[in-house]
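Input (structure):
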């Protein structure tokens, strides 16, 4: 506890120095507003870490974090905007108490989110004012040491003293309002591993490897079948603000039954919306135009074919979905998906894969020059056609090595260890 108290006090000092730089450098009030951390976080933090009533005590910390983030957005013209941004991007690390079972890596993720802005500060002031450089070094070290503290004392999550005093919300922080209703459970489905999972997976995408014969047996669906940092709020089931999001499972205990939304396949203006499709293995969009886009959201265990030439296609939060399309002149994006297959029959210049686990991309002979951009994704494979009509499967690298060659950073793909 003494280590944690020391870290919080150092955070206060860092914010205080930011205020001092603001006063001397013409920044005025923006930096002073981050004093919300200095004013409230210490008592709230000690209360949270010593209490078993975690959920009810998260609201004050959430308020402090939101105030810091909101103030940063209101002061984009401040000469210390990069300083404010570094604080804003990293302060959610204080919510590690809600991040089980890996709170240490979460603190590191929030620290990394701030590095973009601290590097800008170093670039701007390295040759001008060493005080800013010293501030960056001191501020970054706070999160480094917090990560070490969490790893040593709370490796898999917050642990409680069996003999310590029972804290209440009145101890250093105002009593928060009752928490909102819990979120609906996230339907993670069954694992794709194992005999049963492999059988279902193969059966689902059997048709996607037929190439041009994919259209056989598909039925047309008419247009009239219509219907993005704060981990503390996440633990309460509240709305999530913008900014980096932790890789943490949403709480499911005592949750109400999930609400089933009606399936959608319709043209809304220039956008084809395909939403909430479950087990629909014959979805077809055929009456397309070059200016149109396709947005596919929360479609599971389904197959979709897009005929003709279209502007772009997006797969968002889809699971075990097969996509076959003719030509895309812009980009095909795969975001927050799991176990999806994408096959291009014609041409596409770019395919983007982001935050996706399991993605197979089947290229045609005309699309071999396609650029595939990936980030925060795993189990990605590109299948390239051979002369005999078969495909060669090539994995997309997930691990990289970066070295300094004396003038720049050089990054190369490496084999996955283990």
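Output (sequence):
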């Amino acid at each position: 506890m003494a280590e944690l108290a020391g870290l919080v006090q150092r955070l206060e000092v860092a914010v205080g120095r930011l205020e001092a730089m603001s006063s001397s450098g013409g920044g005025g009030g923006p930096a002073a507003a981050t004093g919300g951390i200095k004013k409230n976080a210490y008592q709230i933090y000690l209360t949270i870490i010593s209490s078993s009533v975690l959920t009810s005590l998260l609201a004050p910390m959430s308020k402090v974090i939101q105030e810091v983030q909101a103030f940063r957005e209101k002061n984009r013209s401040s000469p210390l905007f990069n300083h404010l941004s570094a604080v804003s991007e990293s302060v959610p690390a204080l919510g590690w108490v809600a991040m089980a079972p890996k709170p240490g890596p979460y603190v590191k993720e929030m620290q990394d989110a701030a590095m973009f802005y601290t590097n800008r500060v170093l670039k701007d002031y390295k040759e001008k004012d060493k005080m800013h450089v010293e501030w960056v070094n001191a501020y970054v070290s706070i999160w480094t040491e917090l990560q070490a503290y969490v790893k040593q004392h709370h490796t898999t999550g917050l642990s409680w003293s069996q003999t310590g005093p029972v804290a209440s919300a009145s101890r250093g922080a105002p009593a928060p309002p009752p928490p909102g209703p819990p979120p609906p459970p996230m339907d993670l489905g069954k694992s794709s591993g194992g005999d049963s999972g492999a059988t279902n997976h193969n059966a689902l995408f059997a048709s996607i490897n037929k190439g041009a014969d994919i259209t056989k047996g598909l039925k047309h669906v008419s247009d009239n079948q219509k219907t993005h940092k704060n981990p503390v709020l996440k633990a309460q089931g509240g709305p999530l603000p913008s900014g980096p999001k932790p890789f943490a499972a949403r709480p499911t205990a005592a949750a109400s039954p999930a609400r089933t939304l009606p399936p959608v396949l319709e043209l809304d203006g220039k956008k084809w919306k395909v939403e909430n499709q479950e087990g629909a293995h014959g979805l077809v969009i055929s009456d397309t135009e070059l200016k149109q886009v396709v947005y596919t959201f929360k479609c599971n265990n389904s197959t979709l074919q897009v005929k003709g030439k279209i502007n772009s296609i997006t797969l968002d939060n889809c699971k075990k979905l097969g996509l076959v399309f003719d030509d895309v002149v812009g980009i095909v994006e795969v975001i927050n998906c799991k176990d999806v297959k994408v096959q291009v029959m014609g041409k596409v210049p770019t395919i983007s894969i982001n935050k996706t686990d399991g993605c197979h991309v089947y290229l045609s002979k005309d699309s071999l020059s396609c650029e595939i951009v990936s980030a925060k994704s795993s189990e990605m494979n590109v299948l390239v056609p051979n002369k005999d009509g078969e495909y060669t499967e090539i994995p997309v690298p997930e691990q990289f090595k970066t070295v300094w060659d004396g003038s720049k950073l050089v990054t190369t793909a490496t084999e996955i260890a283990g």
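Notes: Residues 142 and 180 are 32 Å apart (CA to CA). The radius of gyration is 25 Å.
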